[in-house]
Amino acid sequence: MDITGMAATRVAECLVNGVPTSAVSARDRGLAYGDGLFETILVRGGKPTLAEWHFQRLALGVQALRLPVDLAVIRSEVEQQALLLGDGLFKLIITRGESLRGYAMPQQPQVTRILQSSPLPSYPAQHAEQGIRLYPCATRLGDQPMLAGLKHLNRLEQVLARSEWQDSVHAEGLVCNLAGDPIEGTMSNLFMRLDDRWVTPALDRCGVRGVMRGFLIEQLAAQGDAVEERSISFDELLRSTEVFCCNSVFGVWPVVALADWQWPVGVHTRDIQTLAKQVLM
To answer: Closest Cα to residue 37, out of 95, 91, 78?
Structure first.
C-alpha cells in the first residue's frame, strides 16, 4: 500500500508482448537461432539512461535484421515501466517471433518483445577508483561485417571468452580478433590514450558498438578531443599511456594491468569517468 491506502503498482519482473509472464514459445526464433536483438538499459530515478543511444542502436539493428518493429511502442513501454521500477536494470529483447522448423524467415513475422527487470548490479567501488586487471582471453572474435556493431542475440563468443576465468582478480577480459588485434572486453568497449589522443578499435568487422562508447565519442568530439576509430595493434595497446573500458551500466573503469603490463590511472581517464557518471545518475 502507498500513503493513500491504495495498492501501489509494481513493475513486472518480466513482460512478454506487454503481458506479465515469463513464458515464451519453444518455437521462438530467438531461442532457436538467436534471431533478434537486445539492449541492457540502466534505469535511474524512473528514467532509462542513455535512452537516445540505446534506441538509435536498436533502430540500426532492426533495419539490418529486417525486423518489423514499432519502436515507438517499445520505447513507450520502456519509459512507462521505468517509472515503476525507479532504479534497476531492464533487459529488452526483440526476436523475430515463432516459426516452423528451418532458417527461412516467416513471410509475416509476429515479433516477440520481452522486457525483464532486475535490481541494480553491485560492483566493487575499487574497480572505478583503483582500476581493473584484464584477463587475456584466448577466444577470438570472427569477422562478420553484416553483423558487426549490432547487439544481436548470438553471444557465444562472449560466453566462451567469459568462461576463461573464474577468479575475482580479473574484472573483465580482453577479446581480440582473428589477427590478434584488441577489439573489446567481454561486456565493454576499450579506449586507449595513444600519442596524446584517444583511440578506440574500429568495429566494422566484429564487436559491439556500445552505447556508452557512442556517447563518449560524441562528448569528446564536442570538447575538441576527437576519438580516432581505427584498427589498433596489440603493440599499440601496450604502449598506450592510459586505457579504460566502458559500458552503459558501470560507466568507466580504468585498466591498470593485463598480464605483465601495467598502466596508471591517468587524469584524462578521470575526466571521462566524470562524463560517464553524469549521464548515468
So the answer is: 95
Give pLDDT tens digits for 127-162: 999 999 999 999 999 999 999 999 999 999 999 999
User: Pick the catalytic residue: 40, 186, 200, 269?
Assistant: 40
- Candidates 39, 98, 172, 184; catalytic one: 184
For the sheet containing 14-16, what is the strand order? 19-20, 14-16, 112-118, 88-95, 36-44, 47-48
- Using only C-alpha atoms, the chain has a radius of gyration, in whole angstroms, of 20
Are the beta carbons of 249 and 89 closer than 8 angstroms?
A: yes
The interaxial angle of helices 267-280 and 211-222, nearest 10 deg, is 120
> Do both 50 and 131 map to the same domain?
no
What is the pLDDT confidence band of residue 2, given thresholds at 50, 70 and 90? very low
Same domain assignment for residues 258 and 228: yes
Q: Report the pLDDT value the prediction gives residue 16, as an integer from 0 to 100.
A: 96
Q: Single out the residue in 118, 137, 172 at which a domain terminates.
A: 118
Amino acid 281: pLDDT: 84
Spot the catalytic one: 39, 49, 98, 151: 151
Q: Is 184 assigned a catalytic role?
A: yes
Is 60 exceeded by the pLDDT of residue 3? Answer: no
Q: Respond yes or no: is residue 151 known to be catalytic.
A: yes
**What local confidence, expressed as pLDDT, does residue 11 receive?**
82
Domain that holds residue 30: 14-118
CA distance 116 to 234: 38
CA separation, residue 4 to residues 1, 7, 59 (Å):
8, 9, 41
Helix axes 71-85, 51-65, angle to 10 degrees: 140
- CATH number, domain at 162? 3.20.10.10
pLDDT category at 7 given cuts 50, 70, 90 is very low
Checking if the pLDDT of 8 tops 70, the result is no
Q: Is 229 a residue of the active site?
A: no
